[in-house]
Amino acid sequence: MFSGCSDFLDINTDPDNIVSTSAPLPQLLTAAQVNLGFEGGSDKFRYSSIITQHLSGQVSQPNQTFEFDRYNITGSDQNNLWSSVFATTLSDLELIIKNASASGSPHYSGVAKIMKAYEYQLAVDIWGNVPFTEALLLDQNTQPVYDDASAIYTNLIKLLNEGITEINATASTISPGTNSVIYPGTFATTKKQWEKFANALKLRIFLHYSKLDPALMTQQINALTGANAVLMEGNEDSFEMKFLDEANRRNPIHAYEISRANYLFPGANLVDMMNAKADPRRTSYFTAFPYGSTTYKGVKSGDAATVNYSRMHTYLRGAVSGTPTPNAQGGIVATALTYNGTAPIRMLTYAEYCFIRAEAALRGANGVAQEWFTKGITASMKSAGVADAAIATYLTANGTLAGATEAMIKQVIEEKYIAQYGVAVESWTDYRRTGYPALKVPTNAMETAVPRSLYYPQSEIDTNPLNVTQKTNQQVRIFWDK
Questions:
Q1: Residue 7, pLDDT above cutoff 80
Q2: What pLDDT is stored for residue 3 in this prediction?
Q3: Cβ neighbours of 53 (radius 10 Å)
Q4: Where are the beta strands (DSSP E) in 192-276?
Q5: Rg of the chain taking only CA atoms, in angstroms
Q6: What gap in Å lies between CA 244 and CA 119, rounded to an integer?
Q7: Is the pLDDT of residue 183 over 50?
Q8: Residue of 453, 365, 371, 366 whose CA lies nearest to 412
């Protein structure tokens, strides 16, 4: 898959320098995609997964994830993520757009615009107002203004529409190929996957208006799904980045587990929800506790700092080997099993697309909610390697929507929450939109409620004080979080 690039980051011309007009488009695209994938398994993933209690850092005291678990996520903690988003990924993408437009390569600029929209959607959902119209100029403007988040969202739809038009251009001087580590292959084939992803991202954005403007949400979703748009059809269309079993090219979630042993364990909120349903995805999501048993245990607030819990398993870390020796209670250390680190970083999956359609249908949009609900569960199960018979059993017990509309929305979001294990930010957004699933504030939390956004990075407060002031707390709501 990576035959067109000898190493993820083997780039001769600095792609982070937006004024470097000689940077090759193929290498810039590889760099931007790799950075995007690593972000999806790094701080962006850890913050949101801990907040939504997919994972827990409670037992890592006095380490960093323990502080995150009690909502002590400071502005200084945001510096690296902000730099990765704006100075690296978006910088590379902007340079691709400029150089591809100048060289008559709309297939490259189209892909870059779609990726830019995705990156900005996450930035808005994490921080709210961020630089947009004056961003990515670097030495031309080191203190960009912060744009209104709602205006950015409107511009993201425009970006996606432009991207779709450009990837479908009949002529392009050069086109992405094996250098694309997301949707690799001949562009004549993969451009349809980029278009499917772009439309799925539009649907994600429209769904975010469910509290702010439900009529707009329904109107926009109906317009898209009723317009013969190219839409996702299966797990092969999921927007995700695959990794290799090689040094510095393994999944960053796996790499973090190796380098920061015992910093993260599965959260009790997720594990208990899955235990209650005898969910067959547990065998790939988590190791058993006690090891060798058929039971699973997540971490909850106040639990003891031991290894006596389930751990992240193959779904997030890749294929496994080894025969560990558990301790007397049945716990295993982080290195007891050997994983190859090839699990993908999942960023927008076909399962999520199905759950978007299910929730939207319940809110009055096109489609039959039950059909999309079934498809979402099935897609998630398939992605986790669950056998058809076990999927059928689970659907019989848990796969029928029932009750009033709000009760069915709760069912959809809770199943989506399970399916979104490993996907950065979106389950946090779902919680902020719907209140599901129920989350308990840790007993040692620094704030009295689940965060609604994160602080701005301290680097921005220090270097761009004319355009941004720090939030008073993490209860400041994103514009769609009415």
A1: no
A2: 36
A3: 30
A4: 239-241, 265-266
A5: 22
A6: 23
A7: yes
A8: 371
Task: Classify residue 282 by its DSSP letter.
Answer: H
Alpha-carbon distances, residue 353 vs 195, 203, 372, 419 (angstroms): 14, 8, 9, 11
- Contact (CB, 8 A) for 330 and 271: no
For residues 113 and 131, what is the distance between their CA atoms, to the nearest angstrom? 16
Other beta carbons less than 10 A from residue 328's beta carbon: 7
Q: What one-character DSSP code corresponds to residue 12? A: S
Task: Give the separation between CA 365 and CA 181, rounded to whole angstroms.
Answer: 34
Tokens of 86: 């704006």
Q: Please tell me the distance from the alpha carbon of residue 173 to that of residue 125, in angstroms, as a whole number.
A: 35
Residue 87 structure tokens:
């100075």
Answer whether 346's CB lies under 8 Å from 238's CB. Answer: yes
DSSP, collapsed to helix, strand or coil, labels residue 127 as helix
Q: In a 3-state reduction of DSSP, which class is residue 312?
A: strand
At residue 348, the 3 state secondary structure works out as strand
Q: By three-state DSSP, how is residue 250 classified?
A: coil
Residue tagged 């830019």 (tokens): 116
**So what's the pLDDT on residue 138?**
62
Distance between terminal CA atoms of the chain? 44
Element (H, E) at 471: none
- List the domains of the chain with CATH numbers: 25-176+185-192+447-463 (1.25.40.390), 350-419 (no CATH)
d(CA 153, CA 158): 9
Distance, in Å, from the CA atom of 381 to the CA atom of 281, rounded to the nearest integer, reads 6
Question: How much is the pLDDT for 141?
Answer: 81
CB 282, CB 250: distance < 8 Å:
no
Q: Identity (one letter) of the amino acid at 69?
A: D
**pTM of the full predicted structure?**
0.94
Q: In this predicted model, what pLDDT tens digit does every residue of 335-381 receive, in sequence order?
A: 999 999 999 999 999 999 999 999 999 999 999 999 999 999 999 99
Q: Could you give the 3-state DSSP secondary structure of residue 415? A: helix
Helix axes 426-434, 43-51, angle to 10 degrees: 30
Confidence (pLDDT) at 9: 43
Say whether 346 sits in a helix, a strand or coil.
strand
Rounded distance between C-alpha atoms, residue 54 and residue 48, angstroms: 9
Question: What's the pLDDT score for residue 18?
Answer: 41
Does the pLDDT at position 4 exceed 50?
A: no
d(CA 400, CA 56): 30
pLDDT the model gives residue 261: 93
Q: Would you give the DSSP letter of residue 398?
A: H
Distance CA 321, CA 393 (A): 29
Report the percentage of the chain scoring pLDDT > 90: 92
Q: Which residue has the tokens 């929305």?
A: 409
The per-residue pLDDT for range 382-436, each reduced to its tens digit, is 999 999 999 999 999 999 999 999 999 999 999 999 999 999 999 999 999 999 9
Q: Are 334 and 346 in contact (CB under 8 A)?
A: no
